[in-house]
Design brief:
Helix content is 34%, strand content 25%. It folds into two domains: 115 residues, no CATH class; 48 residues, no CATH class. The strands form two sheets. It has a five-stranded mixed beta sheet with strand order 5-8-1-6-7. It is of the alpha+beta class.
Amino acid sequence: MSHFNVCILVNRENDESDHQLADKAADVMTKFDLNRDVPEYKRRFDADEVERISKHYKTTDLQELATKLEDWNGDAGGVDEEGLYALSTQNPDGHFDYGNLVDLIPRNRWEHMFLSGIEEKVCRAVVTPDGEWVDGPWLYSTSDPESQRKADEWERKVQELFLEHDNAAAFLADLHF
C-alpha cells in the first residue's frame, strides 16, 4: 500500500470557478474509489490468481476452491461455465481507497508538475475528462534500459493526453492504495 499522485483533467466550460472545477474533479474521482459499493456482480479470477489460490489450498478442483473463497478474500463464490468467480460489491473500477485533490495546476506548469524526474515521478496515472483512467508505469528508477524505455513511453503518452485536452483544467490528487 502506498501513496501516489494522479493528474485529473476536467473540461473547462464557460466561466467556471476554480471551486466548481474542483467539484467536477472530485465527482470524476468517485468512479475510481474502492470504497464505493456497486451492485453485486461476479468477479472473475484470471489464471494467475486461480493458480495462487490453488497453490495456497493445495487443490486444483474449482468446486473445492469456490468453497474456500470466503476465507481467501471475504467473498462467497462459485463456479459456472466461465470458471471460478467471487460475488463482490467492491468497485471493479477502483484504483484507490482514500485520497484528496491537492491543487489546480496552471496549464504552463503541467509538464513540470506531472512529468518531472522519474525517481520522484509525480504522475502515476491520468484521468481524462471523459472519465478514463490511464495507468502509467510504477517505476522507482530508470537505471536499466527497460525502465527508461517505459518512462519515455509514459512521458510521450502523458504529453499526448495534454495536447488532446489542452483546454481542460488539471488537478493534482494525492491518492492511496
